[in-house]
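Per your request, structure below.
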């Protein structure tokens, strides 16, 4: 039984990790409220699956541009400062959504503008968050820290959508946006207490040359490229978030929408809460590919099921498979990438796990408008499972990755062992 429980070593050893964890827990809860409220508001205002799916399109360009540049900023500037300012900016955007929702006639265009600006802020913040983790957590504790961060995210992901479904249905959209604004304020109180994390002395200036340098390093690491390809394909082909409001209607279970949004985080939560076994897995690449294939199969089955409870169960299984993939992708990234490149590679990682879902919203919404909601869901899952089989054949470096023997993992492990880990 102890082998299944989460490893709390990072939490016990680092006060800054505890602060960052608490901040993320609170902020994620509020963000998931808006995550549900915004597409519901778009559905109510437009009645169009394509219009809801278009949110992914407007988020895409800021995600690409600021993801890459945000990685360079994370390497060149103080990481804590970037996190603080972007968290404050997210709070202002929540305030804008609240004001729009309280108007007698809420407009559609502010929803797209806020979605685009939020995508830009998240794209700047996430590389700083990801690259800060190896500085405040000992090298051998990084897989455990990734699992604990996943657990934190999934708690908010389960509670946020479930609460949002009730709040939106019975209290109104304004209350959901107001609660999100409050969580950002509380989150900031934790973030500002984290110790400064200035740039490494080897860090490059945040310019185009630095971005290109990071891209060249990523290109030289075929096993990393493999993780990007797997996640991009899985999310683009099989992420059904944009059509969930319409799927709930089609199943004559409008009450289930909040639960549908909560299924993916719930599945992830179940994995994170029993993640002690992850430290004993060393073939990370194979696990990433297999779990992504299972994600696709679970989504396929959900698209074919006609009982709403079975759909909820299958989507939960899909969320669990996606979390397994995410844990081992994160372990490969954190245990092999040098500190001076960590921000830029985190920016590229952000693109790999964010561009896919954004494009996936466009794909799922477009296919639903053309061929139907159910077809959009099951066909995407089937294509994902097939794509994973092809990628397994085409990515021998990823399939052969072993954390015990990989040259980059060994080198970074030796470097961390030679210097005392940061203890705060």
């Amino acid at each position: 039984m102890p082998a299944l429980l989460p490893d709390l070593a990072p939490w016990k050893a680092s006060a800054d990790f505890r602060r960052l964890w608490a901040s993320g827990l609170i902020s994620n809860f509020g963000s998931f409220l808006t995550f549900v409220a915004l597409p519901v508001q778009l559905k109510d205002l437009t009645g169009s699956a394509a219009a809801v799916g278009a949110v992914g399109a407007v988020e895409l360009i800021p995600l690409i541009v600021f993801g890459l540049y945000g990685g360079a900023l994370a390497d060149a500037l103080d990481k804590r400062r970037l996190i603080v300012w972007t968290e404050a900016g997210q709070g202002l955007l929540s305030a804008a959504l609240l004001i729009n929702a309280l108007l007698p006639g809420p407009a559609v265009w502010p929803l797209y503008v806020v979605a685009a600006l939020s995508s830009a802020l998240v794209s700047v913040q996430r590389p700083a968050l990801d690259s800060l983790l190896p500085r405040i957590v000992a090298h051998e504790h990084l897989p455990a820290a990734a699992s604990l961060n996943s657990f934190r995210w999934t708690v908010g992901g389960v509670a946020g959508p479930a609460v949002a479904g009730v709040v939106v249905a019975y209290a109104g959209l304004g209350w959901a946006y107001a609660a999100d604004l409050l969580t950002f304020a509380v989150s900031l109180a934790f973030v500002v207490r984290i110790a400064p994390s200035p740039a490494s002395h080897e860090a490059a200036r945040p310019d185009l040359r630095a971005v290109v340098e990071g891209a060249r390093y990523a290109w030289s690491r075929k096993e990393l490229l493999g993780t990007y390809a797997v996640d991009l394909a899985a999310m683009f082909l099989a992420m059904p978030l944009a059509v969930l409001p319409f799927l709930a209607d089609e199943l004559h279970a409008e009450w289930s929408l909040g639960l549908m949004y909560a299924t993916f985080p719930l599945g992830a939560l179940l994995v994170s809460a029993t993640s002690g076994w992850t430290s004993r897995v060393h073939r990370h690449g194979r696990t990433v590919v297999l779990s992504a294939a299972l994600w696709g199969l679970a989504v396929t089955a959900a698209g074919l099921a006609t009982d709403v409870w079975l759909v909820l169960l299958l989507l939960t299984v899909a969320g669990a498979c996606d979390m397994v993939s995410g844990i081992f992708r994160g372990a490969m990234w954190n245990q092999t990438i040098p500190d001076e490149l960590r921000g830029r590679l985190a920016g590229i990682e952000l693109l790999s796990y964010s561009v896919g879902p954004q494009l996936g919203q466009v794909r799922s919404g477009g296919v639903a408008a053309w061929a139907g909601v159910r077809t959009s869901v099951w066909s995407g899952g089937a294509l994902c499972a097939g794509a994973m089989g092809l990628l397994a054949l085409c990515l021998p470096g990823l399939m052969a990755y072993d954390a015990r023997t990989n040259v980059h993992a060994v080198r970074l492990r030796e470097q961390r062992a030679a210097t005392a880990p940061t203890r705060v």
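The chain is about 80% helix and 0% strand.

Regards,
D.
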